[in-house]
Design goal:
GO terms for molecular function: cytokine activity. By secondary structure, the protein is mainly β. Helices cover about 0% and strands about 55% of the residues. It has one domain: Trefoil (Acidic Fibroblast Growth Factor, subunit A) (Trefoil), CATH 2.80.10.50. It contains no helices and 14 strands. The protein is globular and about 70 Å long.
């Protein structure tokens, strides 16, 4: 009989035959995150606004932007770095980077005053990440009926997703706790 493996099981490989021809197995070591591919995209919220990064103002917010305003190096075109990991996770691991003028910035989360904050730090996204990282998010389909929209869960805090929140006239990028009993449109990207 064939046994169907679930993605939550730990992959193993045969190590050796022992006495009486017993086969010994060993669990695979997690090979952390290894970069797979990079796609360039703009990130839109449910209001069709584009995410714009402005490092000089230390802000990332969703704004009304015309197609003509989208140009390389203006903080609107994101590189989505896809990673492979073992064992498989519940979503595809990704990291985000963006170019503003002649500098590259990557998205990460850091605790400030007891609250997790979204930050864009100058530098490149690493090719390989040996363990946990504050720059990795798990890409998931937003809902089963909206396959073109996604939500991104922060890898270091289960249930925390990238979202936008109103702050004055801005719709700032933030991390938000998901409630299982509701569909939160502010997390739809």
């Amino acid at each position: 009989a064939r046994v169907k493996m679930s993605c939550e099981e730990i992959p193993v490989y045969a190590v050796k035959f022992g006495e009486n021809f017993c086969l010994y197995f060993e669990g695979l070591e997690c090979d952390a995150f290894r970069k797979d591919k990079i796609l360039q995209r703009v990130l839109r919220n449910v209001n069709s606004q584009l995410l714009v990064v402005r490092p000089d103002l230390n802000v990332a917010a969703f704004e009304d932007v015309t197609d003509q305003e989208i140009k390389p190096g203006n903080g609107m075109q994101f590189n989505i770095h896809y990673y492979n990991t073992t064992p498989p996770s519940a979503g595809r691991p990704v990291a985000f980077s963006v170019r503003v003028a002649d500098k590259s910035y990557y998205l990460c989360c850091e605790k400030q005053c007891g609250k997790m904050m979204v930050q864009f730090r100058e530098g490149e996204v690493p090719k390989d990440i040996p363990g946990e990282s504050n720059a990795i998010f798990f890409k998931r389909t937003f809902t089963s009926c909206s396959s073109g929209a996604f939500k991104f869960e922060y890898s270091l805090e289960q249930g925390m997703f990238l979202a936008f929140e109103e702050e004055g006239c801005l719709r700032k990028l933030t991390l938000k706790k998901s409630r299982e009993d509701e569909v939160d449109e502010t997390m739809k990207i």
